[in-house]
UniProtKB/TrEMBL annotation:
Pathway: Protein modification; protein ubiquitination. This is BTB domain-containing protein. InterPro entries: BACK_BPM_SPOP (IPR056423), BPM1-6 (IPR045005), BTB/POZ_dom (IPR000210), MATH/TRAF_dom (IPR002083), SKP1/BTB/POZ_sf (IPR011333), TRAF-like (IPR008974). Residues 1-120 form the MATH domain.
Length: 352
């Protein structure tokens, strides 16, 4: 049984929101200083402000942060107000958050979009306070102990061969996390009295990352340059071994990597592994002006349209002389001819 008391003083409640600004170039049609609530002295800058809706006064403090491609705050563009401010009718913010030229020259503006996170700390008038505790119970730590089994190899009873590398693991842990491995370890291998698995569908570093997730329920940290490829390969492995949460984590990460150089590969992965969220993110990206035109003549995209004809219909692009599902009919020009694709893209972008 626990007890608590109601205390009549302030307690802080925190929250955050990521704002993605798409079509940044369109804002340049506004002349400097003409943005809402931006003074002329702030012309040439990008500004962010917070306003409180309603008549009730709210006490809070805030922080705006420009995010890099990995979703982490850029220290030089993370600006906060240290004091608690009363929000009511008046708005508070940063009139000079980042110069337009500085943003345009940076790597944080990608495919005509960038992201800003707002962290808000609201001060409530009342809080609850736990009664005195004579015993402190630590948070759950079972995952740490299971993770230690992988690094210590204590009690390991199965080996996994990938290429020239061998990994040791525990049948019960693998089986508990993956229905596919459950069947392989306790049905097929039991019949043959085996304790060795040969995996030829992945690289050793990918297996290492998969095992880390199985034992620790978290992703293995990798170099920033390897994050994209690792997420792509782990997505396929997670689907193969029915690791649902790992698959969704990788799918979410890949949504943040979508650009003109990765969107075709992302669409292929989405189709092969049933990733509806990734597919929707790719479609949203291709709807932005210029993006579809930039990638439609690539070999990868033409191969994609020939193997997945219905994608054209899903994008609102049914070629001239094609069936309703996007596949060619007799006498029609080839689906992936350059002239036809150019005409499709021109017509499609006229809609947006």
């Amino acid at each position: 049984m626990s007890a608590s008391s109601l205390i009549a003083d302030a307690v802080e409640v925190e929250g955050s929101h990521v704002l993605k600004i798409k079509g940044y170039s369109r804002t340049k049609m506004l002349s400097d200083g003409k943005s809402i609530n931006v003074k002329s002295k702030d012309a040439g800058w990008i500004s962010f402000f917070l306003y409180c809706k309603g008549s009730e006064e709210v006490e809070a403090k805030y922080k705006f942060s420009l995010l890099d491609e990995m979703g982490e705050p850029v220290p030089s563009y993370s600006k906060s107000w240290s004091d608690i401010i009363s929000f009511k009718a008046k708005g508070w913010g940063n009139g000079r958050f980042i110069e337009k030229k500085a943003l345009e020259d940076s790597s944080y503006l990608k495919d005509d979009s960038f992201r800003v996170r707002c962290d808000l700390v609201v001060c409530n008038k009342f809080r609850t306070e736990d009664a005195k505790q004579f015993v402190t119970v630590p948070p759950p730590d079972m995952q740490q102990h299971i993770g230690h089994l992988l690094t210590s190899q204590v009690g390991a009873d199965v080996t996994i061969q990938v290429g020239m590398e061998t990994f040791t693991a525990h049948r019960l842990v693998l089986a508990a996390r993956s229905p596919v491995l459950m069947a392989e370890l306790f049905v097929q291998m039991k019949k043959n009295n085996m304790c060795h698995i040969q995996m030829d569908d992945m690289e050793p570093r990918v297996l290492k990352a998969m095992l880390h997730y199985i034992y620790n329920d978290s992703l293995l940290e990798v170099e920033k340059e390897e994050a994209l490829v690792m997420a792509q390969q782990l997505l396929a492995v997670a689907d193969r071994y029915d690791l649902t949460r790992l698959k969704l984590i990788c799918e979410d990460k890949l949504c943040n990597f979508i650009d003109t150089s990765t969107v075709v590969t992302a669409l292929v992965l989405a189709k092969e592994h049933g990733c509806n969220g990734l597919k929707k993110a790719c479609f949203e990206f291709l709807k932005l002006p210029g993006n579809l035109k930039a990638i439609m003549l690539s070999d990868g995209f033409q191969h994609l349209t020939s193997s997945w004809p219905s994608i054209l219909k899903e994008l609102g692009m049914v070629p001239v002389g094609a069936k309703e599902d996007g596949s060619p009919v007799g006498g029609a020009r080839e689906l992936s001819t350059i002239d036809n694709m150019k005409a499709i893209a021109t017509e499609t972008h006229a809609k947006y």
